[in-house]
């Protein structure tokens, strides 16, 4: 999230608030979502695209 290019169209406050409302750690949640999306990368059009980093901060 330090990189301006990461999820450029996403409101950072929404990310923090969403994780808080779910009662989950933001870093763990993002890692979980990346893992879940990886299993259907072809369907999502993300095959061959590697995340910059799974570390958020």
Class from secondary-structure proportions = mainly alpha
The fraction of residues assigned to DSSP E strands is under 5%
User: Span from first to last CA?
Assistant: 6 Å
| Low-pLDDT sequence parts | none
How would a textbook summarize the main sheet? none
Helical content (DSSP H or I, runs of 4+):
40-55%
N-to-C SSE series?
HHH
Number of E strands: 0
**Mean model confidence by pLDDT:** 82
Count up the helices.
3
Instruction: Compute the CA-based radius of gyration.
Output: 12 Å
Shape: globular
What does this structure look like?
By secondary structure, this protein is mostly helical. 49% of the residues lie in helices and 0% in strands. It has a domain of 33 residues. The longest helix has 13 residues.
Topology summary:
Blueprint: H1 12-22, H2 26-38, H3 41-44
Brief summary:
With 57 residues, this protein is mainly alpha-helical. The chain contains three helices and no strands. Helix content is 49%, strand content 0%.
What distinguishing features does this structure have?
0% strand; 49% helix; mainly alpha; 57 residues
């Amino acid at each position: 999230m330090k990189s301006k290019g990461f999820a450029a169209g996403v409101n950072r406050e929404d990310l923090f608030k969403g994780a808080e409302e779910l009662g989950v750690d933001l870093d763990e949640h993002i890692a979980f979502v990346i893992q879940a999306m990886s299993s259907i990368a072809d369907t999502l059009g993300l095959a061959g695209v590697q995340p910059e980093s799974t570390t958020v901060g």
